[in-house]
Design a protein that fits this description.
The chain has a domain at about 25-55 and about 75-285. The protein has helices spanning about 1-10, 20-50, 75-90, 95-120, 130-150, 175-195, 200-220, 220-230, 240-255, 265-285, 285-295, 295-315, 325-330, 335-355; strands at about 160, 170. Strand 1 and strand 2 form a beta hairpin. It has about 350 residues and is mainly α. A two-stranded antiparallel sheet has the order 1-2. The protein has 14 helices and 2 strands; from the N terminus they run H-H-H-H-H-E-E-H-H-H-H-H-H-H-H-H.
Length: about 350
């Protein structure tokens, strides 16, 4: 939005040309989203508390969580407002990737809102229900995948790119749609499963989004992508602003979500952020790198799968409790220790993912 305004003002003052630079607009996107989250956060938390949008606590979970009963949830709305505003203000609104990223994020956020609303207002512990939630996730994911497949401007946009290998690019054909669906829906649910402790999910999301923003910038620059051997995708550089908005909004939310949390993200935030990471990785052609950098989300998801499979097949549990963060809580780790150590793991994984830019 502001890009169009600055292009008009360039006719009268050449200094406005600086706003053409993607790096500047990305930084402004981070700062704008952060400022909105910090300014709107206290008001939104008060409104959520006033309307009794309180988190219900599982009786079968760690006993330390019982004290969290009454903490307002659906704080993911703050994240979505900040991301949307910053992206619309600083992005090129004629860019198709920007609208796909926003569309996926907001549609999954709407689904999460319905799920949270049913849990909080109607006191239904099942919310929307796993079957209907997965159905809508699949619908939204396939719509995004189909659009990206139909509008692909080069073969690179539908190939599977392997990290640390320069010459391997696998043509996927229509299977590209399946891959898109898997990563969008899979990451959405993975982040949702990870969102169980104060600050646990949001900071890894911030780190992964920031790294994906770097990949977007590189992939959207013909010279840099050629130098590093990264697949070039015309126009995808604008997604770095969207990733910057996630980073700023996430840091702003963490201000209120750090231990002890004043507000919880809820499904409205977790489902949306996971889907956002998935669709960005697809657009910048770094799905495998996302699996590496988002290894924490993968571990949490795998722990649930293994726990359920083991109990159904043998009647025994592998972990004290799943997802994995609850296992360590029941082993006696304080909640902040679990969160910080998982953050450290994510830092290492993100650095490994970023190293693939040069090691090829």
């Amino acid at each position: 939005m502001l890009l169009f305004l600055t292009e008009y003002l360039m006719r009268y003052e050449s200094g406005f040309r600086v706003f053409r630079y993607l790096t500047l607009r990305t930084i402004l996107g981070v700062l704008t989203a952060l400022a909105i989250a910090l300014l709107v956060g206290p008001f939104m938390i008060r409104r959520l508390s006033h309307h009794q949008m309180a988190q219900s606590i599982r009786d079968d979970g760690p006993k330390t969580h019982l004290a969290k009963a009454g903490t307002p949830t659906m704080g993911g709305l703050l994240i979505l407002v900040s991301i949307t505003a910053a992206t619309l203000l600083w992005s090129d609104l004629g860019n198709r990737f920007t609208w796909v990223a926003l569309g996926v994020t907001l549609s999954f956020g709407a689904l999460g809102w319905v799920d949270d609303h049913r849990k909080v207002i109607y006191r239904d512990p099942n919310g929307l229900g796993a079957r209907y939630k997965f159905l809508w996730q699949t619908l939204f994911g396939l719509c995004a995948a189909g659009f990206l497949y139909a509008t692909a401007g080069s073969p690179t946009e539908t190939q599977l790119i392997l990290p640390f290998v320069k010459t391997v690019a696998i043509d996927l054909g229509w299977f590209f749609i399946v891959l898109c669906w898997f990563f969008i829906v899979g990451m959405s649910n993975a982040v949702n499963l990870t969102d169980g402790l104060d600050g646990l999910a949001i900071l890894p999301t911030v780190m992964v989004a920031g790294a994906l923003g770097i990949f977007a910038y590189v992939a959207g620059n013909a010279k840099i992508s050629a130098y590093l051997g990264v697949p070039y995708v015309a126009g995808v550089g604008e997604i770095s602003i969207f990733c910057g908005a996630i980073t700023g909004a996430g840091l702003g939310f963490l201000w209120f979500n750090t231990y002890p949390a004043q507000v919880f993200m809820g499904d409205i935030g977790a489902l949306a952020l996971g889907a956002a990471l998935g669709v960005v990785a697809i657009m910048v052609r770094q799905e495998v790198v996302l699996a590496i950098m988002g290894g924490l989300f993968v571990m949490e998801t795998v722990s649930v799968i293994l726990q359920v499979a083991s109990f159904k097949l043998t009647g025994r549990r592998i972990f004290n409790m799943a997802p994995l963060h609850h296992h360590y809580e029941l082993k006696g780790w304080p909640e902040p220790r679990v969160s910080v150590r998982f953050w450290i793991i994510t830092v290492v994984l993100v650095l490994i993912g970023l190293s693939s830019l040069k090691i090829r």
